[in-house]
């Protein structure tokens, strides 16, 4: 794709640095949802029960087990740590790039597949959610595999494709429930219906495949039935998916364009090209009276996109599973621009030049103001990135080479700065891992750590022996004051404990950053105001 050996070498250097960026994310502490998922995986590893899931010893029904199984396998190989929780997921993410390449190649051609895979590997969403693990990180991989296999099955009718496709659907359901089947269904049924290929819809293998997918997903259902009965099955199929959309399970204020403005940053540095590609796609569809080469990307993206935009519960990671199709649609129009539309190619080139300039402005803003540093390697990174960019800008003659490489270099420098400097600094203000590790290193035999009023789960993952949840104020009163008991709590809990009038052996205070609301921390002048006190108390 790149015009000569020199630029291919630069591309390989950038790819190698990108892999390094992903690897640096493996060492960053888990927090919020990722902390909960790591704790479930830890308990699977320690109790050996892969079916009946628990979190701090209590039955757990919120997510199916695939992510936790991967984490438990990692712990079995290398021990309990951030690295071994995240590594199996990262390997799956890397494999999903290949599956996205094959899907793009199957739908269009090799260049579309290659461009799509590059866009995924060099995007905010993939780099962020390979560091901050969610079930959607796993879900997108198996959804991508199923889409590739199903399109091959539609083209060839070969049995191996529907078998692997429905196994992938089952694995996707094991990752996040019925949504793992919904997206492939939207793509397949929409494509065949709009192609008026109704005969294919009657193929018995589609319906036999549904049974295969449920057989693969059955461990999740068995575990829910064991622990929660039929209510657990109902939760899996209804409340945890449809309930989030309707607001009957979790409700928040609906923003009808939530995923439009979120796509701008989570699909950076390619998001503006995607919006142009969407405009061109709809313009062409209307012009051709909705006749198209394929409707796989169209129905696979937009049916799900409309549903989640209407949902009463919205989070950026919910869109993760259709990002491979978003990348393929964008790559398709880049390919069209290269082959037959020089005006569109010029638009894409100008867009990416603006993105590159903004990325470099962001790099300088972060390195010299927001998270000012004097570390030599940061300056080497910036200087090296600028030199490579200038070389490509002055020497590359091919527009695709120039556009893509300049984007890759600037985005890689930005993400390396974030993963190697900014995120470790921000996560260093996490009180929970510090307190848990201090307890694990300092506690005597028989001493116990308790969690009181802190709503997240990192304490359970990082402590050994594992922390115990205090469920009521009365329980706290019975625990406080007993020799060998440690309590980790927030400011509210600390005031409640102080009222007991019991003198502890020591109190360790930490300044804690809530990473689900870090906006004030980004600005140096308001950074200290965002930190809240947390306490580790020993009796």
Provide a descriptive summary of the structure in words:
By secondary structure, this protein is mainly alpha-helical. It has 3 domains: 31-340, no CATH class; 342-427; 431-538. The protein is built from 25 helices and 7 strands. It has helices at 5-25, 32-47, 66-78, 82-107, 110-121, 124-129, 135-156, 159-176, 179-194, 198-201, 204-228, 230-239, 242-246, 258-266, 271-287, 296-310, 323-340, 342-370, 376-395, 399-427, 431-442, 458-462, 473-479, 491-498, 519-522, and strands at 54-55, 58-59, 448-452, 468-469, 485-490, 506-512, 532-538. Helix 11 (204-228) crosses helix 12 (230-239). The longest helix has 29 residues, at 342-370. The mean pLDDT is 90.
């Amino acid at each position: 794709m790149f015009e000569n050996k020199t630029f291919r070498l630069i591309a390989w250097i950038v790819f190698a640095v990108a892999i390094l960026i992903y690897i640096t994310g493996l060492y960053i502490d888990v927090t919020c949802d990722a902390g909960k998922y790591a704790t479930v995986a830890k308990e699977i590893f320690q109790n050996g029960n892969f079916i009946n899931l628990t979190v701090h010893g209590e039955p757990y029904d919120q997510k199916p087990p695939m992510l936790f199984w991967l984490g438990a396998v990692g712990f079995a190989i290398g021990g309990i740590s951030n690295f071994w929780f995240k590594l199996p997921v990262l390997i799956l993410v890397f494999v999903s790039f290949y599956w996205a390449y094959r899907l793009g190649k199957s739908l269009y051609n090799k260049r579309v597949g290659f461009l799509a895979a590059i866009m995924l590997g060099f995007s905010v969403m993939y780099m962020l959610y390979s560091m901050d693990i969610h079930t959607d990180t796993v879900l997108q991989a198996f959804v991508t595999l199923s889409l590739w296999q199903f399109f091959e099955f539609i083209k060839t009718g070969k049995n191996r494709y529907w078998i692997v496709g429905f196994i992938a659907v089952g694995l996707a359901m094991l990752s996040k429930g019925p949504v793992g089947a919904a997206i492939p269904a939207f793509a397949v049924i929409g494509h065949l219906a709009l192609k008026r290929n109704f005969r294919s819809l009657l193929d018995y293998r589609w319906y036999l495949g549904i049974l295969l997918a449920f057989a693969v997903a059955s461990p999740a259902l068995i575990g829910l039935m064991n622990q929660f009965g039929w209510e657990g099955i109902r939760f899996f199929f209804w409340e945890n998916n449809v309930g989030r959309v309707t607001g009957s399970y979790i409700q928040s204020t609906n923003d009808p364009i939530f995923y439009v403005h979120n796509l701008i940053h989570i699909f950076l540095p390619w998001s503006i090209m995607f919006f142009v590609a969407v405009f061109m796609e709809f313009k062409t569809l209307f012009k051709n009276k909705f006749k198209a080469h394929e409707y796989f990307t169209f129905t696979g993206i937009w049916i799900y996109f409309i549903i989640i935009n209407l949902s009463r519960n919205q989070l950026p990671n919910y869109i993760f599973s259709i990002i491979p199709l978003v990348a393929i649609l964008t790559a398709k129009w880049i390919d069209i621009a290269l082959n037959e539309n020089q005006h569109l190619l010029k638009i894409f080139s100008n867009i990416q030049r603006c993105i590159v300039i903004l990325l470099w402005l962001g790099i300088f803003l972060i390195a010299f103001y927001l998270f000012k540093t004097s570390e030599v390697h940061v300056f080497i990174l910036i200087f090296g990135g600028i030199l490579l960019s200038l070389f490509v800008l002055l020497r590359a003659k091919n527009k695709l080479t120039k556009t893509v490489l300049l984007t890759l270099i600037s985005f890689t420098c930005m993400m390396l700065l974030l993963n190697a400097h900014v995120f470790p600094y921000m996560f260093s203000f996490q009180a929970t891992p510090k307190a848990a590790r201090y307890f694990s290193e300092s506690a005597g035999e028989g001493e116990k750590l308790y969690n009181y009023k802190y709503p997240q789960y990192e304490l359970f993952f990082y402590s050994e022996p594992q922390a115990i949840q205090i469920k009521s104020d009365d329980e706290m009163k019975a625990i406080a004051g007993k020799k060998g008991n440690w309590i980790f709590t927030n400011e509210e809990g600390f005031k409640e404990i102080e009222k007991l009038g019991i003198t502890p052996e020591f109190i360790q205070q930490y300044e804690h950053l809530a990473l689900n609301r870090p906006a004030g921390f980004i600005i140096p002048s308001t950074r200290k105001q965002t930190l809240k006190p947390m306490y580790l108390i020993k009796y």
